[in-house]
Amino acid sequence: MDFKILVINPGSTSTKISLFVNKKELFQKSQFHDAPVLLQFPHVNGQVPFRYQVILDMLKEEGVDPSDIDVFVGRGGSACTQPSGVTIIDQKLYDDTEAAVGGSEHAAKLGVMLAWRFAQNYHKPAYTLNPTNVDEYCDYARLTGIRGLYRTPHSHVLNPKAVAEAHAESIGKRYEDCNFIVGHIDGGVTVSTHYHGKMIDGTMGADGDGPFAPTRIGSVPVLELLDYLETHPLDDVRRMCSRSGGFVSLFGTSNSDTVHALVEQGDKKATLVWNTMIYQICKSIGEMSAVLCGKVDAILLTGGLMRFDDITEGIKERCGWIAPIYVYPGEMEQEAMAFPVLKVLRGEAEAITYSGKNVWQGFEGMDL
Q1: How far apart are CA 334 and CA 147, in angstroms?
Q2: How far apart are CA 355 and CA 79, in angstroms?
Q3: Mind listing the UniProt keywords for this protein, alphabetically (predicted)?
Q4: Are residue 21 and residue 56 in the same domain, yes or no?
Q5: Could you tell me the strand order of the sheet in which 14-21 lies?
């Protein structure tokens, strides 16, 4: 039996869709959204009608009737933390995603919300896979110096895991037998540690952690941020963590092509900002190499910004001594969502039902 699978992949600067028939991708379409367009919506949830119409328009351009699609698959995030794997989108997952009970407002959450809306409107099933809130952290990655305050995984998961699995296969190994550092470098930037098939640590890009990016502030000293908050609204700072920081704050645009064009023209400000972003990515890679005690099989670089060769060269210059570096420009997210769902549809694998509870329930027997 053939299954038509629509993959919905909203990012911080784009909406991407792919239509598959089984494993054959019939088409892939993407629309870039500059920050001023998306910042018209005070809250991420407010983008749902806008992005829903964008998807309808793209399907119409391809002559596709949504009612002919068998299943809708969307990126996810913002709910309670979840295990990796295919998860059924149901009312509980939709509600928790909409309410961001997991504490992170990332555009990936729109994938669940859009897939659910399509599924409800056309009476079809919906799934998500490896959302931004997958929790495979080791305990050392959770604890902070404030009692009762923990680091909760909010990161790129879908593409880093797909790239890591693909690279392991390319060298004749299993993902579960390898140690990788994966840098997802796009509108948001995260660097994650993959130890024997688990993402045991990583930067939390939409939470004010790690390198700054086209739409994100990255790590900022706490006292400096508290001083900043004395004269700036809290909601503005929250938006800057995931939507209006980084290039948007510094240049008024999230368009990396615009900023890089200035770099090529020798603009001093653009050059400083661009090279600082690379510098901060390298710092995070070095940090994650320490997590693996220096036993790193490869550093894998992926995401839309890897179309710029100077990012690769900058990382090789500072981090090439750690491990071999491999570049996977763009991402593998579309097939990474479609193929596992196809296995579920064929009865070859089972999907997870969202529990509504965090994977990690605290340090047992310890007052932390």
Answers
A1: 40
A2: 10
A3: Kinase, Transferase
A4: yes
A5: 24-32, 14-21, 4-10, 71-74, 126-129, 86-88, 352-353
What gap in Å lies between CA 326 and CA 117, rounded to an integer? 38
User: Is 100 in the same domain as 24?
Assistant: yes
Return the exposure string of 39-54: e unless at least 16 CB atoms fall within 10 Å of the residue's CB, then b: eeeeebbebbeebbeb
Is 23 domain-assigned? Answer: yes
> Tokens representing 271?
């050059």
| Co-location of 107 and 178 in the same domain | no
Distances (CA, A) of 185 to 19, 108, 191, 342: 25, 15, 8, 28
Sheet architecture: strand order including 298-303: 198-202, 189-195, 179-185, 298-303, 325-329
Q: Report the DSSP beta bridge partners of residue 184.
A: 190, 302
**337 & 308 share domain:** no
Tens-digit pLDDT string for the chain (368 aa): 899 999 999 988 899 999 999 999 999 999 999 888 988 998 899 999 999 999 999 999 999 999 999 999 999 999 999 999 999 999 999 999 999 999 877 889 999 999 999 999 999 999 999 999 999 999 999 999 999 999 999 999 999 999 999 999 999 999 999 999 999 999 999 999 999 999 999 999 889 999 999 999 999 999 999 999 999 999 999 999 988 999 999 999 999 999 999 999 999 999 999 999 999 999 999 999 999 999 999 999 999 999 999 999 999 999 999 999 999 998 899 999 999 999 999 999 999 999 999 999 999 999 99
Q: Do residues 184 and 48 share a domain? A: no
Full-model pTM:
0.92
Amino acid in the structure at residue 8: I
User: Do 242 and 39 form a contact (C-beta atoms < 8 A)?
Assistant: no
Secondary structure of residue 221 in the 3-state scheme: coil
